[in-house]
Structures
1.
Amino acid sequence: MKNALKYILLLTIPLFSLTCSSEREDEIIITDTVPPVTSVFYKNADELALTYDPNGTVSQTMKDTAFELYQKGQWSNLETFFKNNHLNGGWPPANGGYNIADDVPFTAGQKFDRYSGAVGSYSGTGIPTLGGSFTSPIINGYVYTFSQRALNQPENAYDFYYEIDVMNNLLTFKGQYADVIPWFGQTGGGKQTMWKIPVDPMTGYQKTWNKLAQEGYIKVTIKKSPSGKYNALAGTVIQ
């Protein structure tokens, strides 16, 4: 809880250099540098390894090397190490985060944003089904650049960019906040929030953003279509 409170406090202090966004005039883009490692959530190499080697096939020597690079924030070396040893399908460890604060509650008034495609097939007719677990927080109107999110595809590969508003204090699950590891040739250093969304008993899969909106917990607003496929949906509200 102490770490969670410290992280929330840091989120409320905009110690960033800022530039205006021509595409989102009501928002400001955060252009901060990559923060240093100030805390390590994982106690040892084996704990970190559970995030990229759940079946226990990686040698202890390799686990120790990965943990050392992670602790020191040597991100370029860590990515090279993962690629050369074919670890985690090329994805970063720790769900792509460091300086982690776990089990942070969601509260009314919080805003987040996300890039994604639709869940399943989408013909362009009606409201797309949107899902996923990872977002970036929007803090007092400040948004993170695309590169600070360290996503694995170029921006124009994503069909939707949307904002998520938390409508009340009734969400029964919590989130994990972290700084973003530089990866995939992206600068990283932004903030990410991993929502620990439960399974929908009706489908057997994690609840979608649409489902959470239907239940009254959030509101989703599609802001744009980076791919250009669904520009007409900009401004669509899912609630």
2.
Amino acid sequence: MLPIDGFKVRIVEMDSFSFDITRGREILRLDGCDHPSLLGFNLIEADPFLFVYNEKLFLFYESMKYGGRGVINMISTTNLKDWTKPITVLKEKCHLSYPFVFFNEKTNEIFMIPETCQLKEIRLYKGANEDLTDFRYYKTIMRDNVVSTQISFSDSSVFIKDGVYYLHTTRQIENNNVLELYVSSNIDGPYCRHPSSPILKDLKFGRNGGALMTINDKIYRPAQNCAVGYGGDLGIFEVNEISNSNYMETILSDNVLLGKSAYYKNGGHHFQCVKFAGKYIISTDAKVQNKYVANRIFDKIKILLRIY
């Protein structure tokens, strides 16, 4: 993620589930980029993933200081009121974002798949302790050797069903988002292209805005709407079928965040829901535009020169 625009994180709770974010009661904000300086955003926080383990709710998210690389931070709570201080659980030689954390029942282990697109790889990291304060590199499960790829393997996540691992990931090719699906019988591969892949070739909804999630026995896919600009909004698809031979989905909403409240006046690009303490806990992020014109011009020059 490049810092022309920033992101901030918001967590809400609901008694009954809804994609209407205005129904949620706010329980947490991470607003590090609400007060930019002339040099840029002091802190960007984005891609908030929730994970429930050992009667704790963990929040993993991208944290990036201006001029630096993104790292993965974590906070946790047992009561939805008191949160631990942020700690960095993963730092790499490349920019990190989109920290998808999940439990693998086959091996009884916890893994993370962060975005490492600058390396042109999808990497597995394994939780090193029960407190999930440290993740260690485990294995590279995919490499991109396609010359025409502009951005490799963005926003990758795995959905596990009946012992089968379904891996969604996006390549950007010819300024278009190509949502691909791969399948494996083991978490560490090998992964083979699914017969329905690619799922979409589209700036609108061809890139995940969170992992597939099961809510009340239905499967949903959050999808970024990049047609209105990066981080501009989010859509929701219901996955009607996912199997070794077929994948089908139907759009439910093409406007989940943008304009729903003042907090999302510039949009957002992430949505996830888990059940914890009898509540539906939903994590989102919101786009923040840098008000300093000079900084926006400087950041655009950096992007054109590919200086990250």
